[in-house]
Every structure is written in structure tokens, then in C-alpha cells.
Automatic annotation (TrEMBL):
Name of the protein described by the UniProt record: Transporter
Gene3D superfamilies: Outer membrane efflux proteins (OEP)
Subcellular location: Cell outer membrane
GO cellular component labels: cell outer membrane; efflux pump complex
Signal peptide from the UniProt entry: 1-21
SUPFAM superfamilies named among the record's database cross-references: Outer membrane efflux proteins (OEP)
Family: Belongs to the outer membrane factor (OMF) (TC 1.B.17) family.
InterPro entries to which the protein is assigned, alphabetical: OMP_efflux, TolC-like
Swiss-Prot/TrEMBL keywords: Cell outer membrane, Membrane, Signal, Transmembrane, Transmembrane beta strand, Transport
One Pfam assignment: OEP
Organism domain of life: Bacteria
Amino acid sequence: MKRLPLIAALALAGITSAAHAADLMGAWQAALARDPEIAAARALHEQATFRQEQAKALWAPMVSAGGAVGIGGSDSRTKGAEAMGQSDVTFKTNVNAGALTRASIGAQKAWISPEREAQSKQLELSAQIAQTQWQQAQQTLIMRTAQRYFDVVGAEQTLTVLQRQQKAMQQAAAEISKRQSVGDASVMDVQEANARVSEIRAHVLTFENNLATKKVAYRQLTGQEPTQLLPIATINLTPANLADAHTWVQRAKQQSPSVQMMGLQQAIQSQEAKRVKAGNAMTVDWVAQAQMDRLSGQGMYGSASNQMAQYMVGIQLNAPLSSGGMVESREREALKQVEKLRYDQEAVEQQVEQQVRDAWQSLSTAQARLQALTQSEQASKARLSATRQAHRTGARTTNELLGAEHDAAQAELALLQLRIQTAMDQLRLAAASGELGEAQLRQVNALLK
């Protein structure tokens, strides 16, 4: 019984927290924790650490040890030797079959190796690509989260406006039916009103389906129900200090993940050309080797036992003399790929520039368009009010009244859509220029009410 107040308090806290409206930051944090695409990108990003380790390991000493046990034989003859004061002595040893043991150990460390230098650089550049891909994946998730968030908000607001319009048209149709029954309206007026009611009902059903689809997409991304999502407040949506388009384009060419990845891929391919060319290059390695063979058994001269030990410490030189033209051909092929990637990078830079300019142009004129649409909405509402009053006195037709209802709803929807587009344009501009992150998302989140 003593636990009941605690349980009740926890339940009340859960209900209270569930009743709080969700914002853009909460949606992004939920998506960051469960989205499979960002999880896969995180795994690729973690692989970069291993590539850096591999780049260092290329220059680390390679140590190997070996051993062998089996049955072997040997035949050794030495002529013209000198032993115990006698010259021209001949030594012969022979083992037809005997026990053979062999042990060896060696260490080798690259000193001069153009191929390893190219491979090491390729691994380091690959790690940088993984870092850039992680940045791009985070920006992509922010954009997807914001898009699905505003898809739900926009669909909810659109449905609300259409339902309000539907209710107004139903009331107008009912009023016209009453007036027609007393001879104050024509049959054509009733038919016109009923047609408009049926049309708006079809629109409402379509947007109900659209809202349900948007909610499913939001739920799949965040794992949360899209309840009480905060809409955009009626405040100034454009940044206070928006730099000129040229400044944003220069930022994009320097910071855009897409442009950076193309540059890194070009650098990797350049190193590949160097690695291929290194197939004809001289290499120098530090080496240390030791080996011992021992054989004992029976031969044509009786019992025999042979033991041989070899060791060395020094440098090893390897200089290929000819590859038959294969290396030169592969090098030219790799250089052509570098040229192709350079043109690809120029194409990506042009695409990024276009994205930046489109987002900047839309954002720079957003405030003027918002003001114009706000005035249009106010004028449409005033026209609707006047048309309703005139319709009651017979000065306006039913078609004019229903048209005024439709125009007022469309003006309100256009303003709502532009507000969402302006918020998204802020994120698009930051994403195209490579600056999109949590700070920019918080700025847009502050626009919600």
C-alpha cells in the first residue's frame, strides 16, 4: 500500500510527459538512436580507425618463425681440402635417410618502398573519406528528420483548413437548401452548393490518407507517435544576417562533404597511379635471418651427422629490371582515371553551387513573399466576410460565396506551405554548404511554437 503513491506519481509523470508537444530536436535525437542508415554509417566511420592502424603497420617489422621435422638425406663431397698437415684431402659424407630438423627465424622491415608509401597514403585518405561520409550521413539524417517532421505538420495543418472549409460549405449548402424551400434560392444554387460540398469532401478524404502515410514515415524514422508536433510560429523566419550568395558558394566548395569526397577519391586514385608505377621501383629492406638444419642417419660410409647454421643482419635490395610494359600500361590507365575524377569533381561543384544558389535565392526573398501572402490571406478573409454578408441579402450568388470560401482556404494553405519551405530552406542552405549540424537544427527548432 505504501508503494501506491509512488506508482501513481510515476504514472502521472508519464502521462504529463506524453502530453508535452514534440519538437524537431526530440525527433532528431530519436532518429539518431534508432535509424538503421545512420547506424550503418557509424559502423563505417569506426572502420576508419583500423585503416589508420593498417597504414602504420605497413612500416612495422615483419617477424616470422618456422620449423620442420621429417625424413631427409644429403650427399656432401669436398675435394682439395687441407687437414692435419695434409693437402689435397677429400671429405665425403652421406646420409641416405635420416631424421631431419630445421628451425628458422627472420625479421624484415621496409626502409625504402614507394609502393608501401602509396598504400599507406591510400589508407589514410580512405580514413578521411570515412570521416566525411559520417558527416554527410549526419546531415542527411537531419534533413530526413526535418522533412518528415514538417510533412506531418504540414499535412495536419492542411487537413485542419480543409475540414474547416468543408464545415463552412456544408453550412452554406444547408442554408441555401432552406432558402430554396421558401423560394429565395434557385435549384441551380442548391446543385452548385452540393457539388462544392462533394468536391471538398473528396479533398478531405485524400488528405486524411496523406496524413496517415506521413505519420507512418515519421514513426518508422523516430519510433515515436507523431502526436502534438509543434508548428512554426508566426515570427520572422529568415536569418538576421544572411551572407551574399557568392560567400555561400565559396563555403560550399571548401566544406561540402560531396566536394570533399570527390577530392579525396581523386587523391586516392593518384596514389594508386604511384603504387602501380612503384612496381618497377627499387626497394630496400632491413633484414635479420637465422636458420639451422640438423640431419643424422646412416649412409654408405656408416653413421653420419650433419649440422649447418646460417645467419645474417643487414639490408636487402630488390630492383626489378623489366615488366614487359605491363606496369607502364597500368600506370597510364590509372592516370586516366585521375583525369576522369577531376572532371567528376567539377561537375559535383557545379551541382553544389546550383543547390546553394537555389536555397539562398529562396531564402533571401522569403520574407517579402511571406508578407505578400499574409496580406493576401487577410484580403481573402475580408473578401469572404463581405461575400457572406452580401450573399445573405442576395447581392452575391452562391457560386461567388463558395468561390470566396475556396480562395480564403487556398491563401491560408499557401502561407502555411511557404513558412515550412522557408524553415527547410535554412537547413538546405546549411547542408549544401557543409555547415549543417545540431546548432543549425536548434536554430530552426527555435522557430517552432
